[in-house]
Design goal:
Structural class: alpha+beta
Order of helices and strands: EHEEEEHHEEHEHHHEHEEHEEEHEEEH
CATH topology of the largest domain: Trna Endonuclease, Chain: A, domain 1
CATH class of the largest domain: Alpha Beta
Distance between the termini: 47 Å
Strand content: 15-25%
Number of strands: 17
Largest sheet: 6 strands, mixed
Shape: globular
Helix content: 25-40%
């Protein structure tokens, strides 16, 4: 298996044929996921992956591994896995596997996490079995007899009983989805031991049944029944994977997984979790902070002019911080490397306009690499907002329970009115 290493925003270093394969598969993946930003561009005649990190299979012999453009020197794969799964579902307890963090990819990390969770669930809960009702005609009387039907046929076949029976079976849609994911990951992971574990676990999940070659996409959107809450962590991974896949190939065969994720939403998810952590830290200091809902607010008031009405726009922040139930700050997440440069004018204007529309005292711009908070005064808005805070959070070093970056934002917001405003441009 050939693996092509790539970095977001950098030209692919591969043959012309492989570059065409990359454009084709990234285009298919883009059509399936419908991201806000395209997964590649072709400026200067070179193909550059963008807004995507992880593994994309180009053909049966070639895989494209895309690393973040922030070029983290830490285990960025674990951070991506943490952020693509629900916040209740930390992967910190999973074993890291035989590869060092620098040599792991997203597929390997997901496979290890999934194997660990499925093995634990099977050990504690056993297979997922449902009670299935079955109508049949039997030579022995067991189950509930359909007396009316038997009476009509008893003259000719008195020893054939139409009955309804109930039985426990592992052949159900939930088990099929989990088994499907285990089989697909077992083929894609480079770790032979993890692949063998997943194949064994898939068989244990649906004993006596053939492998699930395809699943209904709607099954992955269902809620797991409460009696199976021991499988919640497994279901979280399975649904996160299936939300990113075209499940069956053109000939009906099981398609390989593309374990890749859109980068921008990862930063937005980190903003939401950072606000929750900020509220927790603020509560210890007696402040009533909480995370608010991301609701649209009109930026322009409609007038008599059709042109004004046609150009009216709503603004939706990427995060909202409430103080005693009122909007204190709005957050805008920008998946852009500043590289020591000021924040782009468009980012500043969007952050300030969104804060003004929501009546927030502070506007916060968040970038995906560690930058200490810098506070700027905002003129001409009569205190709404009064300040703009620019901060970078280390997206690809995220771990649940990490407090440093949230604490820096809490300190900046708490002390913002006692700090002299930096009048220079952000």
């Amino acid at each position: 298996m050939k693996r092509i290493k790539a970095v977001e925003g950098e030209p692919l270093n591969c043959t012309a044929y492989e570059e065409r394969l990359a454009r084709r598969e990234l285009g298919r993946f883009q059509k399936s996921l419908r991201p806000r930003l395209a997964f590649y561009d072709t400026r200067d005649g070179h193909t550059r992956p963008q807004n995507i990190v992880g593994t994309v299979r180009l053909d049966s012999r070639t895989v494209l591994d895309v690393s973040p453009k922030t070029m983290p020197d830490t285990d960025w794969v674990t951070s991506v896995v943490e952020l693509m799964l629900p916040s209740r579902s930390s992967v910190s307890g999973s074993r890291s596997g035989s590869r060092s963090p620098q040599h792991r990819n997203l597929t390997d990390a997901i496979a290890i996490v999934y194997a660990d969770r499925l093995e634990r669930a099977l050990r504690t809960e056993g297979p997922l079995e449902l009670i299935e009702r079955q109508e049949l005609v039997s030579g022995t009387l067991h189950g509930k007899l359909d007396l009316a039907r038997w009476t009509r046929t008893s003259v000719l076949t008195p020893n054939r009983f139409p009955v309804t029976t109930s039985r426990l079976t592992a052949d159900n849609s939930f088990a099929a989805v989990m088994s499907f994911c285990a089989d697909a990951l077992s083929r894609d992971t480079r770790d032979a031991a993890t692949g063998a574990r997943l194949r064994s676990l898939s068989q244990s999940l649906r004993v006596g049944h053939l492998p699930a070659l395809a699943v209904n996409a709607s099954d992955a959107q269902r809620q797991l029944p409460p009696q199976w809450r021991g499988y919640t962590d497994v279901w979280d991974v399975a649904t996160a994977l299936l939300a990113r896949q075209a499940l069956v190939g053109a000939q009906g065969r099981l398609a390989a997984f593309n374990v890749a994720v859109e980068s921008w939403p990862l930063l937005e998810e980190l903003v939401q979790r950072t606000i929750d952590t900020m509220a927790l830290l603020a509560a210890e200091e007696g402040m009533d902070w909480s995370r608010g809902h991301r609701l649209p607010r009109p930026l322009l008031r409609r007038g008599d002019s059709e042109a004004v009405e046609r150009e009216a726009r709503d603004v939706i922040p990427d995060g909202v911080l409430l103080e005693s139930g009122r909007t204190r700050a709005t957050f805008e997440a920008k998946y852009t490397r500043l590289n020591g440069r000021p924040a782009p004018r468009g980012h500043v204007f969007q952050a300030v306009a969104t804060a003004a529309a929501h009546g927030a005292r502070e506007a916060v711009l968040i970038y995906p690499e560690r930058i200490p908070p810098v506070v700027f005064g905002v003129e001409g808005h009569h205190g709404v907002p009064a300040r703009l805070i620019v901060q970078g959070v280390d997206l690809y070093a995220y771990r649940p329970g990490e407090l440093t970056q949230a604490q820096a934002l809490v300190d900046a917001l708490r002390q913002v009115h006692s700090l002299p405003a930096n009048r220079s441009s952000p």
